[in-house]
Inverse folding.
């Protein structure tokens, strides 16, 4: 277990330095869309199943595991069609799934009708949790969006908290009379043409030109899969050819840069929806990653990306321009020996490992001698993993999802003489990501001590109900915990209060991700008598300086 | 910390060679058989939890579009 860095607790020095120095610290968060089936109901509507997950988790909260509020998501500040390159897509030209500022495909009312329940039955499509996260129905999947955190280790912890939430909901559905059990998977494809995402978000200063971000990130993202891919049986989006590849997502990307997330997916997503002060910040929305079960893979995925962003911010990032990034993404994914090369525009042919080493070396060269503990830890692990992959990729099964999965698959192939087309291998691929503790193959590996862990189960359970203390997620989570009846809506950058006896709703903006922290607001929560007193103190009283 | 994490309890032959200088001839063989035993145990454990009809189960895992 490692600390999150040696920063002090005062309001000023708790602020991670965004855009200053080479460091893993910055505001970040993850999103997981879980695969979902009800094996006994093969034709069940996936939106309906996903709403069962949200509602089952709400039921566990009502039973005392935490408070429940903010069921209405406040879409006011969502602008999914605004492009980071400086223009806006026409709504009419957008694919319907891009319109994320409208509610999911089935409304709560439609679901109530489908279930034969009265339309006013309370079906929840969205929950804001005590830990500051959002659990909701995103089209045909349940999605957990983590609270904002300031470092990779916390990103791993609150991402794992999402898996804990998912398992809790799944187990709850299993005990509900009249409900067919559902299984949730932390993977990214059904290998039948459909892919769903595991996204990352990083706060970067608006002053960094988007083209600078894109040019340095494309080769990094194309090669990053070798340290954090989740592995997949089958090649091609439709599983057209037999074999094994490094990444779940690689075959579903068709563009270098673009706004889409569900069709014609781009390596660099340009959605410009900062959920923060737009003049100061950009939220880099990363859609190319695989969902990770292995904690070290996840830690390195966000840790190395944050480091490369800091290189770009300092003007120190390498820019090895790929001749064909989309093709290179596939070439690297389709070669688990890591020997395949991709062509650069300067004529060089490099492997994915060569590309990763370029970035790692640039970080090492720029790393200050007094780098904090977690930054140093990420760099050490990255460097040592690349050395292991150079020697023999199979030696990194404890740290990397795709390698752990491949090792199991190869053991089956050796024992039973299975061809890559054997359905048992496809089943192992799928069941690796099964979140049921007794059935999931990753879960089994973890219990056997065959993989490295970074966070304890007790910490994960706590992170499912407690927000991070050093971002505005603290303010959001604590408002919901303290004033469940008064908070009637929430989003990343606002909370909406409805006070008893008042007609008007009160909207509190939280547009600075590094305000609303425990250091700034814990005392206010402790002294306020009720929601009304809290709002009065926050918005007009002597405590105004702590307002988010 | 990184060194600690590289410690591999199931152990690969190459790492054992790095950690124990001049290993006796019996050591790698013993390691190999331990490793084989570990893999056999793991496959037995997975055999016990794999869904019974692989082809049907995999065919039934159909998802609708996502991001």
């Amino acid at each position: 277990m490692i600390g999150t860095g040696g920063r002090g607790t005062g309001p000023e020095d708790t602020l991670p330095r965004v855009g200053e120095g080479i460091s893993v610290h910055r505001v970040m968060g993850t999103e997981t869309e879980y695969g979902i089936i009800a094996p006994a109901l093969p034709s069940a509507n996936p939106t309906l199943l996903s709403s069962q997950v949200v509602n089952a988790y709400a039921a566990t909260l009502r039973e005392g595991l935490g408070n429940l509020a903010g069921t209405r998501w406040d879409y006011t500040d969502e602008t999914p069609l605004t492009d980071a390159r400086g223009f806006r897509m026409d709504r009419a030209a957008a694919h319907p799934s891009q319109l994320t500022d409208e509610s999911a495909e089935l409304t709560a009312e439609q679901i109530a009708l489908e279930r034969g329940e009265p339309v006013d039955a309370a079906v929840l499509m969205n929950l804001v949790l005590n830990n500051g996260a959002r659990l909701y129905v995103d089209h045909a999947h349940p999605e957990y969006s983590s609270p904002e955190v300031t470092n990779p280790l916390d990103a791993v912890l609150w991402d794992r908290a999402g898996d804990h939430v998912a398992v809790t909901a799944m187990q709850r559905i299993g005990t509900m009379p009249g409900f067919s059990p559902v299984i949730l998977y932390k993977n990214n494809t059904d290998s039948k043409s459909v892919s769903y995402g595991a996204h990352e978000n990083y706060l970067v200063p608006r002053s960094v030109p988007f083209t600078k971000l894109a040019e340095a990130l494309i080769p990094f993202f194309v090669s990053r899969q070798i340290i954090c891919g989740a592995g997949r049986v089958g090649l091609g989006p439709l599983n057209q050819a037999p074999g094994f590849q490094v990444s779940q997502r690689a075959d579903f990307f068709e563009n270098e840069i673009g706004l889409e997330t569900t069709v014609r997916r781009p390596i660099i997503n340009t959605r410009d929806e900062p959920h923060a002060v737009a003049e100061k910040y950009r939220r880099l929305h990363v859609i190319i990653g695989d969902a990770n079960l292995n904690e070290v893979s996840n830690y390195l995925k966000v840790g190395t990306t944050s480091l490369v962003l800091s290189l770009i911010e300092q003007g120190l990032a390498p820019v090895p321009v790929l001749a064909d990034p989309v093709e290179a993404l596939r070439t690297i994914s389709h070669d688990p020996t890591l020997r395949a090369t991709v062509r650069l525009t300067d004529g060089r042919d490099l492997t994915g490992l060569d590309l990763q080493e370029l970035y790692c070396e640039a970080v090492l060269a720029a790393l200050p001698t007094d780098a904090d503990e977690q930054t140093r830890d990420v760099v050490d692990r990255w460097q040592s993993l690349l050395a292991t992959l150079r020697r023999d990729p199979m030696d990194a099964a404890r740290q990397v999802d795709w390698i752990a999965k491949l090792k199991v698959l190869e053991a089956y192939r050796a024992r039973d003489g299975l061809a890559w087309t054997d359905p048992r291998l496809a089943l192992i691929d799928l069941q690796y990501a099964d979140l049921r503790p007794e059935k999931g193959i990753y879960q089994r590996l973890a219990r056997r001590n065959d993989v490295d862990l970074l966070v304890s189960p007790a910490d994960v359970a706590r992170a499912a109900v407690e927000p991070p203390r050093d971002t505005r997620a603290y303010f959001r989570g604590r408002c919901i915990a303290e004033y469940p009846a008064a908070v009637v809506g929430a989003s990343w950058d606002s909370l909406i209060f409805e006070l008893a006896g008042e007609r008007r709703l009160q909207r509190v903006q939280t547009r600075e991700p590094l305000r609303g922290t425990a250091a700034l607001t814990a005392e206010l929560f402790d002294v306020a008598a009720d929601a009304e007193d809290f709002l009065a103190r926050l918005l007009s009283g002597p405590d105004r300086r702590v307002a988010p | 910390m990184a060194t600690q994490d590289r410690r591999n309890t199931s152990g690969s032959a190459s790492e054992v060679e790095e950690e124990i200088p001049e290993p006796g001839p019996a050591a790698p063989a013993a390691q190999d058989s331990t490793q084989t035993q570990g893999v056999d145990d793991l496959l037995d454990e997975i055999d016990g939890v794999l869904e019974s009809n692989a082809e049907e189960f995999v065919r039934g895992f159909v998802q609708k579009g996502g991001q």
